[in-house]
Amino acid sequence: MYKNLIRSSSRQFATARSNPYANLEKTLKVGTNQFKYYSFSEVDKAKVETLPYSIRVLLECAVRNCDEFKFKTRDVERILNWHTTSTQDLDIPFLPSRVLLQDFTGVPAVCDLAAMRGAIKSLGGDPEKINPVCPVDLVIDHSVAVDTARTPEAKDRNEDLEFQRNFERFEFLKWGQNAFNNFLIVPPDSGIVHQVNLEYLARVVFNKSGLLYPDSVVGTDSHTTMINGLGVVGWGVGGIEAEAVMLGEAISMVLPQVVGFKLTGKLSQVATATDLVLTVTKILRKRGVVGKFVEFFGPGCAELNLSDRATVANMAPEYGATMGYFPMDEQTMKYLRLTGRPEDSIKYIEAYLRAQGLFRQYDGSQIDPTYSGEVIELDLGKVEPCLSGPKRPHDHVLLADMQNDWNTSLTAKVGFKGFGLPQEKTQTKVEFSYNGEKHTLSHGSVVIAAITSCTNTSNPESMMAAGLLARNAVKKGLSVRPYIKTSLSPGSEVANKFFTGSGVLKDLEKLGFYTAGYGCMTCIGNSGELDENVAKTITGNDIVAAAVLSGNRNFEARIHPLVRASYLASPALVVAYALAGTVNKNFETESLGKGSDGKEVYLKDIWPNRDEIVKFCQQYVKAEYFKEVYDRISRGTARWNALTTTTDKIYNWKTSTYIHEPPFFKGFNSTLPKLRKIQNAYVLCSFGDFITTDHISPAGKITKNSPAGRYLIEKGVGEKDFNTFGARRGNFEIMARGTFGNIRIINKLVDKVGPQTLHVPSGKVMDIFDAAEQYQKEGHDIIVLAGQEYGSGSSRDWAAKGPYLQGIKAVIAQSYERIHRSNLAGMGIIPLEFKNGESADSLGLTGKEQFDIEFDPHNLSVNQDVVVKTKTGKSFTTKLRLDTDVELEYYKNGGILPYALRKLI
Fold this sequence. Notes:
Layout: E1 25-30, E2 33-38, H1 45-50, H2 53-65, H3 73-80, H4 82-85, E3 91-94, E4 98-102, H5 103-122, E5 136-139, H6 154-179, E6 183-186, H7 193-201, E7 205-208, E8 211-214, E9 216-219, E10 233-236, H8 239-246, E11 251-254, E12 258-264, H9 273-287, E13 293-297, H10 299-302, H11 306-314, H12 316-319, E14 323-325, H13 330-338, H14 343-356, E15 376-379, E16 386-388, E17 396-398, H15 402-411, E18 429-434, E19 437-442, E20 446-451, H16 454-457, H17 460-476, E21 485-488, H18 493-502, H19 504-510, H20 532-541, E22 546-549, E23 565-568, H21 571-580, E24 593-594, E25 600-601, H22 603-606, H23 610-620, H24 623-635, H25 638-642, E26 678-686, H26 693-696, H27 707-714, H28 732-738, E27 756-759, E28 764-767, H29 768-778, E29 782-785, H30 798-805, E30 808-813, H31 818-826, E31 830-834, E32 850-854, E33 865-870, E34 875-880, H32 885-893, H33 896-904
Parallel strand pairs: 4-5, 4-9, 5-6, 9-10, 12-13, 12-15, 13-14, 20-21, 20-22, 22-23, 26-29, 29-30, 30-31
Antiparallel strand pairs: 1-2, 3-11, 7-8, 16-17, 18-19, 24-25, 26-32, 27-28, 31-34, 32-33, 33-34
C-alpha cells in the first residue's frame, strides 16, 4: 500500500566528487540488500555521542549535502560543536526531505506556484522550472464543517456540502496534482493531515536509489510537530517558506538550543495522554522554550506508546517550542508494524538507525545526551486529569479545580482568563424552546462538545477511553441534552474501524456523537451553525456559553463566534461534560444525573481505568484496519476521481471568487526593486499582548457586513454561499479584506472590540481594511504596534500576506512567534522588536503619532539596532528581527518568492 510513497525526487544531492565528506559514505547490508549512507558520527564520534538526537539529524543533513555552496564545512562544524555554538545565535542551513501541506495553506501555495509559472513564461523562461524538487504531500482536511450533527446522515451530508462549497478549490488542486511533479494529494474524506502523516505519509528513513537518510519535513501547519512523536524531525513553517523549500531552497535557521525533558514513572489509571500534554504545556510555558527544540528522554519515554508521544509532540506550538522530539526506538518500530508499513522497509529503517546512532534505548546501555541548561523532570505518575482554557491552550486547569476556576473567570477582569461579568449577573438563567421542549441556558452551559483534532483522535487509547465512558454512561441510562452540538470527527477512518469493531460506536451515537466527517472540523473553527433558538438565547442574554473539545486551539472566536469559553480536554472528558451539560460542575461532589434506576451517577462510576482501555486497544486496534483504509485512500475517493480538469501546464485563471491570480508577481523582472526608508508612517493598529494569527487572518465565518462580505455580495455571491476565510484563501481580494478581521480583536486606537480602527488624518473610525485602503490612496506608509508573542497560533501565511497587501511596511512588537516573524520577513515586512522592558505603553505611544524608521535599506545587518522617531519628538531604539543573512536577501528582493524566482531565472 505504501509503494506510491517511494517516489523519486529531482533534488540533486551532492556527488562524491564535490562533497568533502565523501569518505564517510558507507555500505549497509540488510539481508540480501545493500544500501549507502553517510556515517556522520565519524566526523567526531566523541562529540556526536553527547549531541541531542534531534541535532544529530541536522548534522546528518549538513554532512550529506555539503557542497561548499548551500552547505559548507563551516556549517558542519557549527552543528558538531553545538554545545558551544548553540548559545551564539549562529545560522545554519537545513534541507528537509519533504514538504507537507493542508488545503487551507496549500491552495495559496499552489496559486503562487501557478503564478510563478506565468511570470517566468512572460520573461521568456521555461515554466517547467517551477516544480517541486522534493516530495510534496497535500491532505485536504480543513474544508469539511459540522453543518449537520447528531444524526446517522451527518457525515454524508457534511461531505456533500463540502464538495458543493469547495468545488472550484478542489478542481484547482487536482489541476496542480496533474501539472506539477512530486506532488501527491490525499483527497477529502480521508483524514486530518497530521494523523495521515503519522499513519501513512511518514517514511522515517528515506530510500533514494539505495541512499538512506532520515525523513524530515516542514509543513504549512504549526502542528506538523506531531510527527516528532515518530522520531521524525519536522516543524511548521509559513506557506511562503514552504514554497521556497519546494523550489529547492534550504531553510536558513538559527542553530537551536535543546531543552532536555526527562520523564520517569508511568501514567496513573485515570490519567490520559491529553492530561499529560496539557501538563507539559504548562511546565514548558513557564520555562520559556520559544525558538528551542524540546527533546524528551528518560525511562518514562519507554512507558509511552507512540500515539501518546505524538499527542505530546503535537502541541509543541502551544508550549512555544519549535519541536517536541522523541528519538526513534522500539516503540517506533512497533508503530510502523501496527500501521502496516512493509516489513522489508522496517528492517532497513531499524538497521540504518542503529548504524547511525539514531536509535534510542532505555536499558542503560547508552549515555544521555547533554542538553541546554537545566533538565526538566516530570514523574508521569503525578499527572492529573485536567483541561485548558477558557481562551488559551496553555491556561491549565486541574479537573478538581475546574468549578472554582470557572466561577472566578466569570467575574475576573476581561482578559485571557476573565469575562468581566458583574457579580449580580453570574446566576443568569434563561429558558428557551428546542424542538418543542423547554430547556435552560446559563453561564457555562455547554453548547458544543466535539471529539475532534489530530492531537487526540490519532491516539487509540484516548479515543477508546471516550468510547468506553460512553458505553458505561449508556448502561447507567444517562443521556446528553438534545440542543448540545455533539460531534465525532476522527482523524482517519481507522478510528471508526476500531470503534465499530469494539461496539462502542453505537454507545457514542446514543449520546449524540455521530461521525461528522474526517477532518479538523470544530478544532479549526468549522463547527457549523448553532440552533437558531440557542444562538438567540446566547446573544439576547449575554450568556457566556461553553465549548469542550479534544483539540489544540481554543482562542477567542475560533471555535464559534458565539461561544466565548472553550476548553481543551481529553475525548473522555468531552463526553463527560456533554453529559454534565455545563462546565460549572464539580465532578467529585456533583452527579452527572440520575440513572435509569433512579440513583445518582457520578463520573467516577463510569470512568474506565487505563488497564481496561489498554486491553481493549490490544484487542480491537488492528494493523489490518490501517492497511484497508490507506489502500483505499491511495486509489482516491469516488467524488475526487470524478473531478475533471485541464492537463495544461500553465493555469488558465478563470473568473472565480475562490481562485484568483495572486498579485505578488505582477510586473516582475529580474532586477532588484528599489528600496526606500519608512517615513511619516501612520499606525494602522495598536495591539496588546498575544495577538494570534486567528486575530490577524481569521479562518472562520465571513460576515455579511464585513469588507469581505460586501465584496462577495458585489460579486453576486449569496450569504449562504460565503463559506469561510479558510476556504477562500486562494483569492487575495478576500484575504486582504479579512486581514485583522477577527470580531474579538482589540485595537487600542478605538474604544470597541472588533475589526475597526482610527484613520488618524481624518479622525474617522472605519473597518481596518478600509482604513488601510485609504492610507494607500493617500500615499502614506503604515505600521503596526504590538505587545508580546505577536503572531502566535497557526502558521498562516496570509497573516503576513494580508498585511503586505494592506500596505504595512513594518511591525514593532515586544516579541514574535517564530513562524510569523519568519513570514513577515518572507513578505518583505520589517519586523522590529522593542528593547527589553520597553513597549508602546511604557514609551507613552498613543498610536496617533507619525513614525520615521531610520535605517539604510541597502545597508542592513542581522539584528542591528534601528532608531524609531515620532513627529512628536520621541525616540527609541529597536532590534531588527531579520535574523539571518538570507532573510536580509529576502528583504532586498521584496520577499522570499521573488528571491527564489530570480535565482531560477
